[in-house]
Amino acid sequence: MKIAVIGANGQLGCDIFKTFSENGHDVIPLNHDTLEVTDFSSARTAMEKTRPQIVVNTAAVHNVEVCEASPVKAFEVNALGPRNLAVLSNEFDFTLFQISTDYVFDGSKKTPYLETDFALPLNVYGNTKLSGENFVRTISRKHFVVRVSGLYGTNSCRGKAGTNFVRTMLRLAKERPELRVVDDEVLTPTFTADIARQILALSKIDQYGLYHVTEQGSCSWYKFAAKIFELSGSKVKLSIADPNEFKAKVNRPKYSVLAHAALKSVNLDLMPPWEEGLKRYLGEIGALQ
Q1: Angle made by CA atoms 147, 17, 79, in degrees to the nearest 5
Q2: Which helix (H) or strand (E) holds 194?
Q3: What is the rounded CA–CA span in Å between residue 116 and residue 31?
Q4: Which residues are catalytic?
Q5: Each residue's pLDDT tens digit, 76-101
Q6: N or C: where does the chain have the smaller number of CB atoms within 10 Å of the terminal CB?
Q7: Do β-strands 54-57 and 26-30 pair in parallel, antiparallel, or remain unpaired?
Q8: Residue 19: what are its φ and ψ, rounded to 5°?
Q9: Cα–Cα distance between 155 and 173 in angstroms, integer?
Q10: In the chain, which residues have pLDDT < 70?
């Protein structure tokens, strides 16, 4: 099967490219130098040239502060880009996978969000990603909208200075004797390689729609950091940051854990506990004790 991965050089896109390739598919990387999702003509030319059966769109402006400062650019990439691909998915008859986010929710529920729960973003990033979802869901006949959370992977994250939370914690643990991390935001950290395997599994079915794809369980950023240091053998002293000690410039949901109702409904929930994903990731980057 021919698979096009938009943003194949990114943190998630790289694992999707690798996973489909290792499973015998013909995978085409479509990065910024070969396709501009905000330009319909550019996107159409790429689709006409490659003729894929599946397109996975990981392209996004996902730095929350950048989105807040440049809402028009964020909307162009995160909403109009998916709209262009949705229109083209019908014209060229391919299945579209659109990657979305837990930040479409406001965090007020305090129990895992279902795919059917009302989305109410707190910031520009969440609003633009939700708009992208809506374009895909209302236009594309064959689509999977995949919401993810707390990503980290072996490839660098272009939108976040080439790093992720795990690598940042490991670096800071070597540079400082003590670290303070917030404990009031709860999420599900997720290894991008596991998302890639789940998307591969979804590509084999035709139950299109909206799916939550994260690891199992949840934790705060503080508890995530504690597990990173435990598994890596880091001796840094870790403590909970005081409220407002690291006051965010942009509002974020305090609770964004996602339930896997849709995956369970098709008997295809392959996602492991977040602790297991973290352990494998640390092993892959040579940081496991």
Answers
A1: 40
A2: helix 192-202
A3: 32
A4: 125
A5: 999 999 999 999 999 999 999 999 99
A6: C
A7: unpaired
A8: -65, -45
A9: 21
A10: 156-162
Q: Using CA atoms, how far apart are residues 262 and 265, in angstroms rounded to an integer? A: 5
User: Residue 135's domain spans which residues?
Assistant: 2-160+189-217+252-273
Numbers of helices and strands, H then E, in the chain: 11, 12
Residue 197, both tokens: 């395997």
Strands (E), the chain: 2-6, 26-30, 54-57, 95-101, 143-148, 151-152, 178-181, 186-187, 190-191, 209-212, 219-220, 237-240
**Residue 213 belongs to a domain:** yes
In a domain, 15, yes or no: yes
pLDDT recorded at residue 145: 98
Tell me if 206 is assigned to some domain.
Answer: yes
Q: What local confidence, expressed as pLDDT, does residue 288 receive?
A: 85
Single out the residue of 236, 232, 198, 237 nearest to residue 215, CA to CA: 198
Residue 94 · residue 52 · CB < 8 Å: yes
- Which residue bears the tokens 């870790």? 238
pLDDT for 110 equals 86
Tokens of 150: 């707390």
Q: Would you mind telling me the total number of residues written for the chain in this entry?
A: 289
Q: How many domains does the chain have?
A: 1
